[in-house]
Give the backbone structure.
Amino acid sequence: MFAGIGIALVLAAVIGGFLMEGGNLHVMIQPAEYVIIFGAALGAFFIASPGGMVSVVFKSVGSIFGSGSVSKAQFLELLALLNTIFSKIRKDGLISIEADIENPKKSPLFTKYKSVLANHHALDFICDNLKVMITTNMPPHELESLMDVDIGAHHHHEMIPSESITKVADALPGLGIVAAVLGVVLTMGKIDQPPSVLGHSIGAALVGTFLGVLACYGFVGPIATNLENQAKAKGVYFEVIKVAMVAFVGGAAPQMAVELGRRAISGQERPSFTELEKGIRK
């Protein structure tokens, strides 16, 4: 929602200010400039991106119009699930959850927590590390190192869209200059024309520079920042799982391990102690 509002505000401010100064929007309609700048930007993106990266980036761009972060309710569900798992392990032993983690989507242990089931990366992360706990007697510090490797790989994958779009944003002002230079070259061919014709031609050329800079700082750059913030928010989700699991393996009681996981959440998404207690009871 906020991304849509931001796009509308940028357009309203730029176009509104231009009109307030007596500008003519007809001057901004330069199809050739749009083709040069955005066509070249798309081509540069394809050159820089391996095959699988292109689809990942295009799929992620639409997510800027969503919430973009993990909500408090989703964190509460995650913490409640971890408490349920830890309590079952403490009561019945590690082997008691083997069937649950082999097929979590059909497990009564997991199916109550819809938001966790919908997050297949987090679900795999939980189940894979529980399998490690069952099959090995790994000490807490080694489990933490193993989980850090997994989190690092996931974060790298999540950052691909942001980094790719940032590169495109960085290129747009330069491509705007390319379009402007081509416009000047065309203008030089009209040097024998009257000033009104030359002025219109130079104005059309400068539209290229304007479009490149506006697209970079008004739209494409902020989109990249939005995707980066989303990746960081998803990283916190995994950190919560890691902190809680390492604490539990280290001997903490289920509710204490979950409380340590809660402390890894920052900002307004962090549920209070009371909210977590109610969520666990519920």
Summary: The mean pLDDT is 89. The two ends are 31 Å apart (CA to CA).
